[in-house]
């Protein structure tokens, strides 16, 4: 009996590149929101603190939750459209940092829009009297200008 055997070695370069790309994607993070170090000038507090109080609420200060950041980010990263940039990154169509920058810019726009236009619980009557209007997350318009993204 004669057996004919041929050895085949697969070219795994493309697979190796894909594995490298996935590893890079897993190591890289996009943060969207408010970061320590940025000061909310009217209050002297960090923007991150003011955003957290407004997003999560503060029962001790009688501030109800107004989840502007949570909702904006869930709107920004929803559905098939959110997966398209990941496909582009994995297929080398767009560099990782550029893709994350574009996603970050869009997410920041959503955060700012949501602060200014979201349907939030009304301010207390006393707060309305002090501000002169009832837009719960807008007082000095400082907070929206402090929203940003960072790539880590």
Number of strands: 4
Order of helices and strands: HEEEHHHHHHE
Strand order of the largest sheet: 1-4
Strand proportion, as a percent range, falls in 5-15%
Provide a brief overview of the structure:
By secondary structure, the chain is mainly alpha-helical. 52% of the residues lie in helices and 8% in strands.
Fold and architecture overview:
The chain is built from 7 helices and 4 strands, in the order αβββααααααβ. With 152 residues, the chain is mostly helical. It has a two-stranded antiparallel sheet with strand order 1-4. β2 and β3 form a beta hairpin. α3 crosses α5 and α4 runs antiparallel to α5. It is elongated. The model has no long low-confidence stretch (mean pLDDT 87).
How would you describe this structure in keywords?
mainly alpha, 52% helix
Secondary-structure blueprint of this entry?
Layout: H1 13-27, E1 30-33, E2 39-40, E3 45-46, H2 47-56, H3 68-76, H4 80-90, H5 96-117, H6 125-131, H7 142-146, E4 148-151
């Amino acid at each position: 009996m004669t057996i004919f055997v041929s050895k085949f070695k697969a070219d795994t370069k493309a697979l190796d590149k894909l594995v490298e790309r996935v590893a890079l994607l897993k190591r890289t993070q996009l943060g969207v929101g408010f970061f320590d170090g940025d000061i909310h000038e009217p209050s002297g507090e960090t923007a991150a603190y003011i955003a957290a109080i407004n997003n999560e609420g503060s029962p001790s200060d009688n501030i109800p939750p107004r989840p502007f950041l949570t909702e904006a980010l869930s709107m920004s990263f929803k559905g098939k459209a959110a997966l398209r940039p990941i496909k582009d990154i994995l297929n080398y169509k767009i560099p990782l940092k550029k893709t994350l920058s574009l996603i970050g810019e869009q997410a920041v726009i959503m955060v700012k829009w949501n602060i200014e236009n979201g349907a939030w619980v009304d301010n207390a009557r006393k707060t309305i009297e002090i501000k002169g209007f009832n837009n719960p997350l807008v007082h000095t318009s400082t907070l929206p200008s402090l929203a940003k993204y960072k790539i880590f």
